[in-house]
Amino acid sequence: MNRLLIAALLFFISQNILSQNFSKLVYIEKNYFLDDSLYNVYLLYKIPYQKLVFEKENNHYTAGITFSAEIQIGGIIVQREFISESVKVEKYEDTFSPQKSLQGLLQFTLDEGKYTINPSVRIQNMERSFSLPAEVLDLPSPGKFSYSPPLVINNELSCNNATPIAANFGGTIPFSNIDYPMIIFMHGITDTLINYNIIQSNKTIFSGQASLFSNGKPELNKCAEGITLSTDDSSKGNSLFRFEGFSKKLDEGEFTLNFQLQDTTVRIKLETEWINKPVSLRNPEYAIEILEYIDEPRRVNKLLADKEENYYSELKNYWKIYDSDTNTVFNEVMNEFYSRIDYVNEHYSTITVSQGIKTDRGKIYLKFGKPDSVERSYSKENEILEIWNYNKLNHQFVFSDKSGLGNFTLVN
After folding, report:
1. Maximum CA pair distance of the chain?
2. Exposure of 81 by Cβ count < 10 A (0-12 exposed, 13-18 middle, 19+ buried)?
3. Could you tell me if 288 and 332 lie in one domain?
4. Domain range for residue 330?
């Protein structure tokens, strides 16, 4: 592979300018905590700004939703709640940001039983409602001890010095180079440390000890940056344990968290999902074919000669030798390469060239990343010149479009 390209990819990663592309309309996560003989049930929701419909008002942009949920048991509605939320931003770029989200929660108090949650969301400025997939909620009969679903935490956020903040990616752990701890509420436990291990693909990939994070009754509350977790120390017999340091070892797919509670082995099945997976990487065959722009045809053909069901695993093995951080399963160089493919296909495709990677601008962007600055000039003959400046390289690339249709060719 082109060493200059790898060096450029590594430099770009160090600048931490990785784009995200969330595919879901709404992330929903449910959690519950035992309070005496009843459960406090929380339904968290998160909608990226890019999925909202913003409307300009004076010098800002506004959007909003109404989120609602019906709780049923045996086909009978036992509770119904809704909440309306709005958001205001000053910058137009924020209106299509996948990183920023409108978040909130609904709270219910329920007895033990097996319930169905039917959520829906109405998008303001669009006046359209969406019925979301039903969620099953199984609240067990309280015993000597009990535990709740893991709450995934985002260490990158804080709100008025309040931590932790719920990550809420629909109950999954993001496949990432960032550590995402989990907090699990347990009732009737006197231990202060819990030994646990993580099993994935029939292998133990991590063993550790979960430490006591806090005692008391948990509460989830909304703040500006998301949903915070706090505890009420007046409640006895409740403990929150923090499981951390394992998420960087996880590959995509299902895994199992195992630990002992008294004489019982607890097994919780969970999933790791590449939330912002590049679109060009979601089709393994295309992801291999696109390697022709950086590698020899024989290596590309060798990968394509394998069985189709092996394409993705072989592709990951291909990129493993270029991995910039072997302490994580997440491959930053692979992610950056296909993120660039996504960018050029979105921004440099034309009427005559359907894939931006086939254009001169696309090929330069793939090799060197985003230019530090771009200049444009127009000649009397309606020729458009576009100049890309790379300060670190001390180099310029000049592209010319003589047709006015965006067909830029490299001239210098």
Report:
1. 84
2. middle
3. yes
4. 1-21+277-354
CB contact set of 363 (below 8 Å; sequence gap of 6+): 293, 357
Residue 297 burial class via C-beta count within 10 angstroms: exposed 0-12, middle 13-18, buried 19 and up: exposed
Look at residues 86, 107, 140 and tell me which one is the last residue of a structural domain.
140
pLDDT band at 23 (very low <50, low <70, confident <90, very high): very low
Q: How do beta strands 238-243 and 395-401 pair?
A: unpaired
Show the CA angle centred on residue 250, arms to residues 281 and 147, nearest 5°.
Answer: 130
Ramachandran category for residue 35: left, alpha or beta (phi over 0 → left; psi -120 to 50 → alpha): beta
Q: Tell me the C-alpha distance between 105 and 185, whole Å.
A: 18
The C-alpha atoms of residue 253 and residue 213 are separated, in whole angstroms, by 28
How do residues 87-130 score in pLDDT, each as one tens digit? Answer: 999 999 999 887 889 999 999 999 999 999 999 999 998 878 88
Q: Is the dihedral of CA 198, 204, 206, 209 positive or negative?
A: positive
Q: For position 19, what pLDDT does the model report?
A: 36
Within a domain: 359: no
Of the three residues 247, 276, 305, the one that is the final residue of a domain is 276
Which positions ≥6 away from 116 have C-beta within 8 Å? 71, 72, 73, 134, 135, 136, 137
Kindly write down the DSSP assignment for every residue of 202-252, as one continuous string. Answer: TEEEEEEEEEEEEESEEEEEEETTEEEEEEETTS-SEEEEEE-S-GGG--S
